[in-house]
């Protein structure tokens, strides 16, 4: 299938505190070469770019993953851009506005990859929880942040349409990996110098559930306030 | 792929008044042999059972569809039940409670087929709108209902987990076709005499969007109150 966005788990379920990893990084790489994820315990930020998976943790370490690590929530796709253009010298809010104009529709999922030189890159890394897990908002409120200036790399991630808030985070949810592969994280904001922007529009959103995880199948999940908690945490 | 629930369009988008059909019944039948849908204008109730598609309209007519009719919102699957059991002499609320106990999880989508003799079957048929379309709640408020007693047939449809309310209708959303194929509709409630219940649990939910429909891709859809309107209408 082409133009399929594959997701394992949901952001809502993660926010509700079901943090046990249920899909391996190698499994995820079968469904795409670009993507975002987290590991068991919602430990850090996974960045999948050019078919490789990297991990940025709360200690500001950045490593390539081996493949057998487990993820409770991941979104990946085979990246085949429908639109490519260049842009320069503007803050992330303006870059996102441009991408929204160039996406086929705000009612569809899209992937975006922004590669080149960034004047500023501001990221955070979710601190991992140990069992017993609690609602993610607890660890989201104590995330370390990091800012780098004049850095080359790629922003990768997805646009989620408003109706799917809860399944993902409505709007853009993007991670960053630098070209030296030693810095990255969940993107808070940035400023581009000169970048290439690539956009893929998705016809199909494939939601995979952790059917073999009894913590998921047997739990009465409390989704109350999830929409609000996602807005606060993301 | 097995155990995939395929959906074209979303209930939220339908409720917001985007009622133009965008997938043909023949296209839908490629993705499943059991299912529920509506036609352009949200005209009536489509029941897909045993690989054939039927239509119940507001005039209480019931016909087999030809295949080139278009649907704005449809949910279908290849039915391969994971669990089969018999039950008798109880109202729909109790039947649903039993099904919920026997589904793998309330956090997954499931298909259900309930076949046999029903003491009572209470259905409604959505009146079709003509363009310019309005929010569905307007036509939902003037739906004719129909009750039949001691009737043989099949209830078919799906369970949607709470987090996906808006994408579908949280809980059970089922339609009915009698064995004589001359009566059916959207199920409001029923009472079983003796029936066989079959349940399929889904590992994957495949959401397909109407990427070629400019009314969908170019509209700023107002999803405010959609969750509430779905609860009122369904």
Describe what this molecule looks like in 3D.
The structure is a homodimer of 234-residue chains. Chain A is 16% helix and 45% strand. With 234 residues, the first copy, chain A, is an alpha+beta fold. Chain A has one domain (4-233): 60s Ribosomal Protein L30, Chain: A (2-Layer Sandwich). In chain A, the strands form three sheets. The first copy, chain A, has a seven-stranded mixed sheet. In chain A, strands 9, 10, 11, 12 and 13 form a five-stranded antiparallel sheet that branches. A two-stranded antiparallel ribbon of chain A has the order 2-7. In chain A, strand 5 and strand 6 (62-64) form a beta hairpin. Chain A is globular and about 50 Å long. The first copy, chain A, starts with a strand and ends with a helix. The A-B interface holds A 10, 12-13, 104-108, 162-164, 166-167, 201-209, 211, 216-221, 223, 226 and B 10, 12-13, 104-108, 162-164, 166-167, 201-209, 211, 216-221, 223, 226. Chains A, B: This is Alpha-acetolactate decarboxylase. Chains A, B: Belongs to the alpha-acetolactate decarboxylase family. Chains A, B: It catalyses: (2S)-2-acetolactate + H(+) = (R)-acetoin + CO2. Chains A, B: Its EC number is 4.1.1.5. Chains A, B: Pathway: Polyol metabolism; (R,R)-butane-2,3-diol biosynthesis; (R,R)-butane-2,3-diol from pyruvate: step 2/3.
CATH fold node name of chain A = 60s Ribosomal Protein L30, Chain: A
**Rg of chain A (C-alpha, Å):** 16 Å
**Helical proportion of chain A, percent range:** 10-25%
- Globular, elongated, flat, extended or rod-shaped: what is the shape of chain A? globular
What is the total domain count of chain A? 1
Total DSSP E strands of chain A: 14
